[in-house]
From TrEMBL:
Pathway: Amino-acid biosynthesis; L-lysine biosynthesis via DAP pathway; DL-2,6-diaminopimelate from LL-2,6-diaminopimelate: step 1/1
Gene name tied to this protein: dapF
Binding site for substrate: N13, Q47, N65, G75, N76, N149, N182, E200, R201, G210, T211
HAMAP family in the record: DAP_epimerase
Protein name: Diaminopimelate epimerase
Subunit note: Homodimer.
Pfam families: DAP_epimerase
Amino acid sequence: MRIPFIKMHGLGNDFVVLDARENDLPDLNESIARGIADRHTGIGCDQLILLQPSDSADFRMRIYNHDGGEVGACGNATRAVAMLHGSNATIETDGGMLAASPRDGGASVDMGAPRFDWDAIPLAYPMDTLSMPVGWEMLQNPGAVNVGNPHVIFFVDDCDAVPLDRLGPEIENDPLFPVRVNVNVATIEDRSRIRLRVWERGAGLTKACGTGACATAVHAMRRRLVDSEVTVALPGGDLQIAWSEGETIRMTGPASESFRGSFEWDDYA
Ligand SMILES: N[C@@H](CCC[C@H](N)C(=O)O)C(=O)O
C-alpha cells in the first residue's frame, strides 16, 4: 500500500507527518515508527506525527519519537500541523487539548497549563526519600515541569559548555525516571532572553524543542528570573513564550513544509 507523507520542521526539529484525518491508515506501532524515522534506512525524522479524526477536537495528533515510543506532546510539531491545517484548530493530544492559530510562516499555540515540581513528572521513588540533592556532575538542582510531557531543567552559566551529548542520555535513562525524561540546559541572558539546548527523550540532541522551551521559560518565570514574555533561543532559532501564574502557556514561532513524498507501507511493516 502506497502512503503519502509530508516532511515538515519547526526550527530544524523535523517530522514526518502522516495525515489520516480523511483516509484511514494501517495500524502504526513502535517498530514501524522507528523504521520510518531512521535517518539511514527510512525517511528520517526526530518525530513521526500521525493526524487522525477526533470526537472532541478538530483533529487528533499522535506523536512518536525517533526511537518509536509514543509520547504526549510536541510543541514544534503542533505549530507545523497548525500550518498544515491552515486555520484555527483545536488539537487533541495524549498530553491535553491544544488550540493553535496559523500565522505567516508559523503558528501561535495555547500549550495548556504547566504542572510544576517533582509530583508533576513520573518518578521511580518520592523525591523526599532521597538524602542527597539531585544532580549529575556539573548539572545540579534540576527543576521539574510537565507540559504534556516530562522535563527537567538546569540553569547554568553557559549552556553551550555542557557536554549534553554525554550527560543527556545519562539523565534521560536514570532509574529515577521510569518513563525517562527530556533534559534542558539553559542560560538566562537577560530578563527577556533565555538560551536553551535540549536532549530530547527518545530523539537525542535536536535543533529545537518547543515543549522544552515552554517548560524552561515557565520555570524561569516562576523563579522570577525573567519577565512573563521571553525569547527562547535554541540552536535552530527563536521561540516566543508567554505565561503568567494560573494561566496557560502561549508559544509562538515558525514552522515549514520541506517536501512531500510517498512510501511503501510493507517496507516498514
Ligand atoms: N520535539 C518536541 C518534543 C517531542 C517529544 C519529546 N521528545 C518527549 O519524549 O516527550 C517539541 O518540540 O516539543
